[in-house]
Design goal:
The structure holds 2 protein chains of 2 kinds. Chain A is an all-alpha fold. Chain A is built from 14 helices and no strands. In chain A, helix 12 runs antiparallel to helix 13. Chain A is globular and about 75 Å long. Chain A starts with 13 loop residues before the first helix and ends in a 7-residue tail after the last helix. By secondary structure, chain B is of the alpha+beta class. Chain B has 2 domains: about 240 residues, Rossmann fold (3-Layer(aba) Sandwich); about 120 residues, no CATH class. The relative contact order of chain B is 0.12. Classes of the chains: A mainly alpha, B alpha+beta. Chains A and B meet through helix 8 and helix 9 of A and strand 6 and helix 2 of B. Bound molecules: adenosine-5'-triphosphate and magnesium ion. The site of magnesium ion (MG) has 2 residues of chain B, from helix 1. Chain A: This is ABC transporter permease. Chain A: Pfam families: BPD_transp_1. Chain A: Keywords: Cell membrane, Membrane, Transmembrane, Transmembrane helix, Transport. Chain A: Its main location: membrane. Chain A: Belongs to the binding-protein-dependent transport system permease family.
């Protein structure tokens, strides 16, 4: 059937309207928890359990969460945790890029004995439940002094970030014609300069995408900071839950406010490099 | 460093028993190139012709230094290069994929090759070469906006810009359409003559090889089957593979028996077909494979040995006609190319013959030429 698709003009058929309605329904359904959280974050403590949509909103919760008052209430330094999260995740991504980019390049360019096994091994870190490794790690961290330190977190988050960086970037390097670098070699560039000057700039979108994804996964990680940190290097994911308190001291409104603040950095990052992200998530395709 | 655009010192290129064995995990070691030897004179244009997978690209990459040499020697001029890194061999390569750097425009792409060597006057050199290749108007465009023919020219320019001693081109015309292909082929030859580079062109298109090359190497499964001028390859094939691979329409190959007579050699083929052949080395009664090019077959005179054949199809191509024939007792059909005006009809029985020196005899077992 040859149906003409006119740009800028759509046919309204029963089918298309129905599909739009379904999408809208799904949209409302999936956004609802977020809407609920936003509403909750704007309520006072006395309103937090009411289900009325009509209430007098306040921004006070955000201030409370970020200030010492929040700390006094729940003994959690949320702004400190925010900073820790940034340091832990930023550091982890940086280390992963530093080591992972050359690794991905090597894995994408050369086959050698066991190269595929090695790649699979690395991916399998993502399959294994974190709880499986975290208990022995707890013991080791306690004995080596890595417990509750930024270094320790950067170290353990490599389990999360490194496989992502290597796997995403490997596919980028594989998509790149090796003849580009070979032409540079013939021009007299060294291998390393050919890599840095020819291959690397072409996979920038991939690096951005990998870095962002790794950052988000690291940011959202809960188990490692829960077990391997206490107060100094603890992260937002752990800190948020502290507002739920213990002994009947649940601050749902503060929890919601904290969760919203905690969701902000990855969101802002994602929006700023959105352009790269769309291409990056399609895993490659950097053709001329 | 000269700033002149023309090659100052074309160099001879010598391959001595070059071999390449690929070692892949979980597979048998694979010998892709099995002892290649070639003596290429300065400024010569050589075509490497062969079917897919015969090792043409591998050979080229070994010369360029992009692939290690398992054994053997490669010399440019009097310098052994097989252990030098690619950048030290002074070789220009035109890659099949063009290898143009997408973020840079054509001008920057051309200058890129000079930058690594910190050549002075690079900008002027780029302008000169671009003018010479009639692509000055392309200089500010990005590779993505070029047609494949234009990309091809830029890739060639990129290989030429450093004024290399040897130029290697891998399937330079493969991405072009038929009309462009002819034009660029001629341009390539003119440029090569003018610049005087020692050049190897890889191709699997025999027409390209025959028309471009001073000499050509016909490769098969990692060995050179024959190395010679296009005329030698076409008129005097060394073996059945070369005869079969080069020539359009394909050569007719059929079984026969050599019969020695005082006047020379005659081959019997089919029930009562006979063809005079020039093959002093053939022994009486030897089973042979006969090779007869369609272009060499002609209507026979009444008094000479000939193949009697029934016409299955006659196709008229205006300048010539192609008759597809069936010879009783001969497996497969025989194609004869007939001059304009000779019209044979389907079902007729006709007699064909050829000049004795154009009837090739091959050893059926080994495929080598009997002459
Ligand atoms: N890196 C490699 N590892 C293993 N085998 C290889 C490798 N590169 C090429 N080969 C094999 O070597 C043989 C020759 O390959 P090559 O690319 O030289 O062929 P070619 O003559 O250029 O063919 P084409 O006309 O298809 O380009 C092929 O059988 C190929 O499969
Ligand atoms: Mg090839």
């Amino acid at each position: 059937m040859a149906r003409e698709m006119m740009p800028g003009r759509r046919r309204f058929t029963a089918g298309s309207v129905g599909a739009d309605l379904l999408i809208l329904l799904w949209f409302v359904f999936s956004l609802f928890p977020i809407v609920w959280m936003v509403l909750l974050a704007l309520k006072t403590r006395s309103q937090q359990t009411s289900t009325y949509f009509a209430f007098s909103p306040t921004l006070e919760n955000f201030g409370t969460v970020m200030s010492r008052r929040g700390e006094d209430l729940t003994s959690v330094n949320f702004s400190g945790a925010l900073l820790s999260s940034v340091l832990n995740c930023g550091g982890a991504v940086l280390v992963s890029l530093l080591i992972g980019i050359p690794a991905a390049y090597a894995a994408g360019r050369w086959k050698y004995r066991g190269s595929e096994d090695l790649m699979f091994q690395m991916l399998s870190f993502r399959f294994a439940p974190e709880l499986m490794v975290v208990v022995p790690l707890f013991v080791i961290y306690n004995q080596t002094g890595l417990f509750d330190t930024t270094y320790g977190m950067i170290w353990v988050l490599q389990l999360v970030t490194m496989p992502l960086v290597v796997w995403i970037l490997r596919s980028y390097f594989q998509d790149l014609s090796p003849e580009l670098e070979q032409a540079a070699l013939l021009d007299g560039y060294t291998r390393r300069r050919a890599f840095v000057m020819v291959a690397l700039p072409l996979v920038r979108p991939g690096i951005a995408a990998a870095a962002l994804l790794a950052f988000i996964f690291a940011w959202n990680n809960y188990v490692f900071p829960l077990i391997l940190t206490d107060s100094e290097a603890t992260t937002v994911t752990v800190a948020v839950t502290k507002f739920l308190g213990g002994g009947g001291q649940a601050y749902y409104n503060l929890t919601a406010a904290a969760a919203l603040i905690g969701a902000l950095p990855p969101l802002v990052l994602a929006l700023t490099i959105q352009r790269y992200l769309v291409r990056g998530l399609s895993f490659g395709a950097v053709k001329a | 460093m000269t700033t002149a655009v023309t090659a100052t010192d074309a160099a001879p290129l010598t391959l001595t028993d070059v071999r390449k064995t690929y070692l892949a995990r979980g597979r048998e070691p694979f010998e892709a190139v099995k002892g290649m030897s070639m003596d290429i004179r300065p400024g010569e244009l050589i075509a490497l012709l062969g079917p897919s997978g015969c090792g043409k690209t591998t050979t080229l990459r070994m010369i360029a230094g992009l692939e290690t040499v398992t054994s053997g020697a490669i010399a440019i001029g009097d310098r052994q290069v097989q252990d030098l890194p690619p950048g030290k061999r002074d070789i220009g390569v035109g890659f099949e994929s063009y290898a143009l750097y997408p973020p840079l425009n054509v001008r920057e792409n051309l200058a890129y090759g000079l930058k690594a060597r910190r050549v002075r006057g690079a900008a002027r050199q780029v302008d000169q070469l671009a003018a010479r290749l009639e692509m000055s108007d392309l200089l500010d465009q990005r590779p993505a906006s070029l047609s494949s023919g234009q990309k091809q020219r830029v890739a060639l320019a990129r290989a030429l810009i450093r004024n290399p001693r040897v130029l290697l081109l891998d399937e330079p015309l493969s991405h072009l359409d038929a009309a462009q292909r002819q034009r660029v082929r001629r341009e390539l030859k003119v440029l090569q003559r003018e610049f005087g580079y020692t050049t190897i062109v890889v191709t699997h298109d025999q027409l390209e090889a025959l028309s471009l090359a001073d000499r050509m190497a016909v490769m098969n499964a990692g060995v050179i089957e024959q190395f010679g001028t296009p005329d030698e390859i076409y008129d005097d094939p060394a073996n059945m593979f070369v005869a079969d691979f080069v020539g359009e329409p394909k050569i007719n190959l059929f079984e026969g028996t050599a019969v020695r007579r005082s006047g020379g050699t005659v081959v019997r083929a089919g029930r009562d077909g006979r063809l005079a052949a020039y093959a002093p080395a053939a022994t009486d009664g030897q089973a042979v494979t006969v090779g007869l090019r369609p272009q060499d077959a002609r209507p026979a005179h009444d008094d000479e040995p000939a193949l009697a054949a029934r016409v299955v199809v006659y196709e008229d191509f205006m300048e010539f006609g192609l008759a597809t024939l069936e010879v009783p007792g001969v497996d497969g059909r025989i194609v004869a190319q007939l001059p304009h005006g000779v019209r044979w009809r389907r079902g007729e029985t006709r007699r064909i013959a050829a000049r004795p020196d154009r009837v090739y005899l091959f050893d059926t077992e080994t495929g080598t030429r009997i002459r």
